[in-house]
Amino acid sequence: MEAIEVTDLRKTYGGTHAVDGVTFAVxxxxxxxxxxxxxxxxxxxxxxxxxxxxxxAGTVRVLxxxxxxxxxxxxxxxxxxxxxxxxxxxxxxxxxxRMFGSLYRDAADxxxxxxxxxxxxxxxxxxxxxxxxxxxxxxxxxxxxxxxxVVVLDELTTGLDPIARRETWRLIGDLRTAGTxxxxxSHYFDEIEALCDRVAVFARGRVEAxxxxxxxxxxxxxxxxxEAYMALEGADR
Length: 237
What we know:
Blueprint: E1 2-13, E2 16-27, E3 31-35, H1 42-49, E4 57-62, H2 71-75, E5 78-81, H3 93-101, H4 110-116, H5 132-144, E6 150-154, H6 162-177, E7 181-186, H7 189-195, E8 198-203, E9 206-211, H8 213-220, H9 225-235
Parallel strand pairs: 3-7, 3-8, 5-6, 6-7
Antiparallel strand pairs: 1-2, 1-4, 8-9
């Protein structure tokens, strides 16, 4: 069963083809990676997936719905953490979880979410006083408080120190174990290789290849996903 289907997606800004005929599908329950350098079309694709942008051409279906037309309905079934997510500096952790939970018809108990993501010791701490890793943990918890069927995470670990980054990896692994469909967007190839069941390799607004990290590495005769990406990108020049 496909949780997400994208077919011939196109989006242009002025004379720039940000997304140029992208096609891929995400199976229910898998962790699916979107990898590529800055400007490859990753974020624009994600914005079309969650209904923040309307495609110029092509089709997008998330849980069978068109995000551009059914954004409000899909918001009840999606969890989203975007690259520049933030909260008011003085908002407390518990306050944020309680408020976000109130936005969903069938939310998880925000207290249980707080415990699941090890946030109870930080319940009364202000967002502005959290470390980078703690903020990311809270953002993940907020993405999950609606008990979503699909969660989209865009550049989740950018700017984190190595310890916080590894802790965030563990949390994403917990989502996979729980059976949540995860779309993980990153320009960190080691992150995608470690966490994802399958991956779409983006370059210049197109999908150059899809498959498991091992399949892409074997297909290109390289030793890592980053080397496979460079081989695929170079082959298309």
